[in-house]
């Protein structure tokens, strides 16, 4: 049994879903672990991780619009220390989650045909986001 871990940093351009599948696939392949389990963890409270469709860009836009309706800005939140997008970003991160667990086979995450891994930036302005990756297996 072997394991490896790394923190990958990404620059976001504001509220968006940034596909990070290629970066994750490259790192898993570099570890040399063929079969195992991959865990990804977002080290932030106003960004998150998700797996969703990566073929139609309309899906990403629809998801972002839906999240904006669920957690709108200027909704009377007590917490607005960093601006009107601060508390909505925390709610969106809570709803979408901070970690993913993906099986690994043949040295690659076992994603479905149309699945991609996304870093969800919930803040309006650009940020540098850190995602911790850990893989364990053989």
Describe the SSE topology.
Elements: E1 2-11, E2 16-19, H1 21-31, E3 36-42, E4 47-53, H2 57-70, H3 86-96, E5 99-105, E6 108-109, E7 115-121, E8 128-137
Antiparallel strand pairs: 1-8, 2-7, 3-5, 3-8, 4-7, 5-6
Summarize the structure.
The protein has 138 residues and is an alpha+beta fold. The chain is 26% helix and 39% strand.
Percent in helix:
25-40%
CATH-assigned homologous superfamily: YjbQ-like
CATH class: Mainly Beta
Q: Would you tell me the overall average pLDDT? A: 97
Give the biggest sheet: 5 strands, antiparallel
- Number of helical segments with 4 or more residues: 3
Number of domains: 1
SSE order, one letter for each helix or strand: EEHEEHHEEEE
What is the count of β-strands? 8
At CATH's second level, what is the architecture?
A: Sandwich
> What's the Cα radius of gyration?
16 Å
Principal-axes geometry comes out as elongated
Strand content: 35-45%
Classify the secondary structure makeup into a structural class: alpha+beta
The CATH topology turns out to be Jelly Rolls
Widest sheet: strand ordering:
1-8-3-5-6
Task: Give the terminus-to-terminus CA distance.
Answer: 5 Å
Weakly predicted, low-confidence segments? none
Oligomeric state of this protein: single chain
Protein name: Secondary thiamine-phosphate synthase enzyme
Pfam family, one: YjbQ
Organism: Caenibius tardaugens NBRC 16725
Family: Belongs to the UPF0047 family.
Describe it for me?
The structure is a single chain. Helices cover 26% and strands 39% of the residues. It has 138 residues and is α+β, with helices and mostly antiparallel strands. The chain has a single domain (2-137), classed as YjbQ-like (Jelly Rolls), CATH 2.60.120. The strands form two sheets. The protein has a five-stranded antiparallel β-sheet, covered by helices on one side. The longest helix has 14 residues, at 57-70. It is elongated and about 50 Å long. The protein starts with a strand and ends with a strand. InterPro entries: UPF0047_YjbQ-like, YjbQ-like_sf.
């Amino acid at each position: 049994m072997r394991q490896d871990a790394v923190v990958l940093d990404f620059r976001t351009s504001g509220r968006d879903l940034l596909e990070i599948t290629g970066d994750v696939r490259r790192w898993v392949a570099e570890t040399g672990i063929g079969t195992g389990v991959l865990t990804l963890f977002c080290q932030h409270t106003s960004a998150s991780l998700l797996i969703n469709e990566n073929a139609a860009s309309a899906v990403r836009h629809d998801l972002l619009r839906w999240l904006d309706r669920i957690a709108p800005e200027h909704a009377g939140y007590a917490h607005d220390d960093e601006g009107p997008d601060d508390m909505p970003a925390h709610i969106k991160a809570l709803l979408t989650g901070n970690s993913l667990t993906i099986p690994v086979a043949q040295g690659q995450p076992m994603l479905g045909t149309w699945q991609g891994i996304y870093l969800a930036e919930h803040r309006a302005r650009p940020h540098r986001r850190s995602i911790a990756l850990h893989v364990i297996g053989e």
